[in-house]
Amino acid sequence: MSNSGTRQRFTQQFKDDAVRLVIEHGYSCEETGRRLGVSANNISRWVRQYRDKLEGPAESGLSREQLEVELKRLRKENRRLEMEREILKKATAFFAKESN
Predict the structure, then answer these.
(1) pTM of the predicted model, to two decimals?
(2) What pLDDT does residue 85 have?
(3) How many CA atoms lie within 13 A of 62 on its CB side?
(4) Fewest CB atoms within 10 A around its CB: which of 47, 77, 89, 100?
């Protein structure tokens, strides 16, 4: 039986080699995980972290996480503004009808 309470640890070299199999050799995360005896989710996360590290901070100097938070905030604000615009359109139509 396996110890479900212990966590398997991988060296950075092992992670780099796994990422290299996906990026350079074209293996899928599932195939790489199966061949190395590692969860495909781990491989996917390592590849994502590698790509994020390559991209580095954006031109604005913000990290990817900060950009995602800003995008979420802007989308929320955009929905609010669209709703306000619709309300103003309806109010304009209502008052235009009332003035006739």
Answers:
(1) 0.52
(2) 97
(3) 9
(4) 100
